[in-house]
Amino acid sequence: MKPLSSARMRHWLGASAILVAAIATALPAQAGSVLDAINQRGKIKVGVGTSPGFFAPDSNGKWQGFFVDFGRALAVTVFNDPAKVDFTSSSPQQRLPALQAGEFDILLSGVTETITRAFKLGFHFGPVIFFDGQGLLVKKSLGVTKGADLDGATIAIQAGTTGELNIADFFRKSGKTFKSVVIEDSREFRNALDSGRVDALTQDSSDLAIQRTQLARPDDYVLLPERLSKEPLAPAIRWGDDRWLEIVNWTVYATIEAEELGITRANIDSFLDTSDPVVKRFLGIDKSLGEAIGLDPKFAYNIIKAVGNYGEIFERNVGKNTKIGFDRGLNQPWSSGGLLYSPPFR
Amino acid sequence: MQCALLVVIVLAVQYLGSNLAANMKLVGITPGFGFLNHAANFQIGESVIPYQAGDSYGRAILVGLLNTVKVAVAGCILATIVGVALGVARLSTNPLLAWQVQAFVEVVRNTPLLLQLFFWNAVLHGLPGPRQALSPVAGVLLSNRGVFVPGIETDSPVIAGVVLVFALAAVVFLAQGRHIGLAASVAGLLGAGAWGLAHGATVALELPRLRGFNIAGGLTLSPEFAALLIGLVVNTSASIAETVRGGIVSVSAGQWEAGAALGLKRLQILRLIVLPQALRVIIPVMTSSFLTLTKNSSLAVAIGYPELVSVLNTTANTTGQALETIFIMMVVYLTLSLTVSVFMNAYNRRWKLRENAR
Ligand SMILES: N[C@@H](CCC(=O)N[C@@H](CS)C(=O)NCC(=O)O)C(=O)O
User: Fold this and answer.
1) Does domain A134-223 match CATH 3.40.190.10?
2) CB contacts < 8 Å between A and B, how many?
3) Which of A138, A192, B59, B245 has a beta carbon 3.0–4.6 Å from A197's, enabling a disulfide?
4) C-alpha B232 to ligand 1 mean position (Å)
């Protein structure tokens, strides 16, 4: 059993998160913008989870992962320094109220964009950075091939996730029944399947694929191909700072646009003497765009230098050659049949 | 001075209140409790009353509240029994026993409760599956799907309830050594039972047994409930043991000697002379142990027992009404605390009066 850090313990008392959110709503709307606060602090506060590949500290305590790299990209846009960012892990249950309460400037934790979260929690979402769907992870020996076979089964759900509603909808629609065990802690969630307490886990399929690699005997389990829902995972911020939202938007777009233009971390400098006006504007060789919008004209160049384009971020953290081994699937440029599409940099 | 304080408080509340309304409007949330009637589209793992996804948030929250009450009541009763036994054992003349109890108390009090809960959860999840369930005594099955004990199946719950009340009364009277009360409640118990049977009520002992993939029949305690209950009982009994020990030690040695002079045995002295006096010290501290146990039950979110805070968290997440849910939580915990305090104070007063009367 891994020891719990004190920061995690602090997040335990279930009540604390809503209390903080409640107090935050009662205090005056935060003075000044999020961006002002970030600049004053000299760091961006990013809320993440703990799923290796997406977000996890490496053996040196340095945060690594797909979502983490987008956090670093943001730090490059704001400070031109990928290190000026603090990552804090909290459970899916605690992180939404924590964002509301201002504990984080942004969540890069695999939050699904939904209309309720937009209007009722008061969140804006940046561009979707991972197109996902809810899945089911089951023991192979059960011989189950689709969700409907799980009639009467016991299924663990992670507290605070969209999965709580999706799985109930799924069974109501099909008229079948299931028993739920709703668990907040990620490790306890996984252990519930490992120990046989539940017949299946349900979560974002990406998360389940990662959880599977962490089980004692991964090969005993199978992620069913069926997807119960659409889970567009996007950066989430509070309402109230339009400029911060645009910085988030265009930081993500920069990684997508670079991939589409064929610009990588390795070859980027070979583009510096290009005559293509689109690339010149994008990389800030032509400074007029950056100056007009008040960003470092070379912010996109700096991002790619620091973390690479979208495809590189994907492959490095969760791609085919990693332990996680995800296919690009929907998460490739529209021009190759995916859903990634950046508006023009002009 | 007090007036000034009042003015400050009123102004502060007004300030926060107007801010609140403005801020909520800003994010598009309508303050109020209207959401309690809206459909809660999530499932809750276990419930004392019927509940399914699509019922109202109000009902979902009630389910959570009842689950909290269930574990708190069971926890307080068991922790008291175990705690008193440990406290007395701690003062045993047998040094080995006293030492063992002390070691237990120290270990329990010096590990975080959350870790203890994880531990018990792992133990319960580590039990074999339903088909290989352990059966330590006939009729009890232990598996990773839950702890199954025999249940009583009856078609007349009212009569069963009356019988149960008489049975409880009998136990209480027995403990207090009041023979008339004991006889009366046993008579009531037999009478109610006989009346029920004569009028065609059926009772049957239902044993849990394997059906298909799972165990059915009897009473089921989910592993999460069992882990939480064991964790809370172990944790609280350790502090109750300390309280009881302290209470007994606070009674002067002269009382023991006087009892011995009357020819009473050690246990008799304890029950008749020492404990009644010690209770004055013990009960107020015990009250706070009970309240702590109730509040600690909210740690169950981590292991997946659907108590009040877990349902309220989900409610806040899916409705955005964080403030309302925190209000409900405060009101509920305050009410629970006050209820426990009122009961314990009444009990405390009774001991004092009896002491004066004697
Ligand atoms: N997308 C769902 C689930 C969010 C979620 O649980 N994300 C995963 C990563 S994709 C996670 O945080 N897992 C647990 C953890 O990392 O602590 C939601 O927004 O409700």
Assistant:
1) yes
2) 165
3) A192
4) 29
Q: What amino acid occupies position A209?
A: A
Give CA–CA dist A132/A111, Å, rounded: 11
Look up the ipTM and state it: 0.83
In angstroms, the CA A207 to CA A111 distance is 12
Residues of A with Cβ-Cβ distance to B329 under 8 angstroms: 15, 18
The protein residue with its alpha carbon nearest to ligand 1, atom 17, reads A49
Q: Per DSSP, which regions of chain A are E strands?
A: 44-48, 56-57, 63-64, 85-89, 106-107, 123-125, 130-132, 134-139, 154-158, 179-183, 200-204, 221-223, 231-233, 236-238
Give how far Cα A175 sits from Cα of A152, A170, A178, A200, B141, Å: 11, 9, 10, 18, 31
Residue intervals in chain A for CATH 3.40.190.10: 2-132, 134-223
Residue nearest to atom 10 of ligand 1 (CA): A110
Q: Assess contact for A250 and A165: CB atoms under 8 A.
A: no
The tens digit of pLDDT for each residue in B225-260 reads 999 999 999 999 999 999 999 999 999 889 999 999
- CATH among 3.40.190.10, 3.50.30.20, 3.30.230.10, 3.40.50.300 for A2-132: 3.40.190.10
For B296-355, the pLDDT digits (tens) are 999 998 899 999 999 999 999 899 888 899 999 999 999 988 988 888 888 888 766 555
DSSP conformation letters of A284-343? TSSTHHHHHHTS-TTHHHHHHHHH--HHHHHHHHHSTTSSS----TTSSBGGGTSSB-PP
Which residue in this structure is represented by tokens 């109750």?
B240
* pTM (2 d.p.): 0.84
Q: Decide whether any atom of ligand 1 lies within 6 Å of the A205 Cβ.
A: no
* Min Cα–Cα distance to chain B from A107, Å: 15
Judge whether A80 is closer than 8 Å to chain B, CB to CB: no
Q: Report the distance separating Cα B303 and Cα B227, nearest Å.
A: 9
Q: What is the DSSP letter of A185?
A: S
The 10 Å Cβ neighbour count of residue A147 is: 25
**A186 token code pair:** 């990620």
pLDDT interval class at A162 (50, 70, 90): very high
Count of C-beta atoms within a 10 Å radius of residue A206: 26
The crossing angle, in degrees rounded to 10, of helices B95-109 and B223-250 is 120
The answer to whether residue A297 neighbours chain B at the CB level (below 8 Å) is no
Question: Greatest CA separation found in chain B?
Answer: 78
pLDDT tens for residues B55-108? 999 999 999 999 999 999 999 999 999 999 999 999 888 999 999 999 999 999
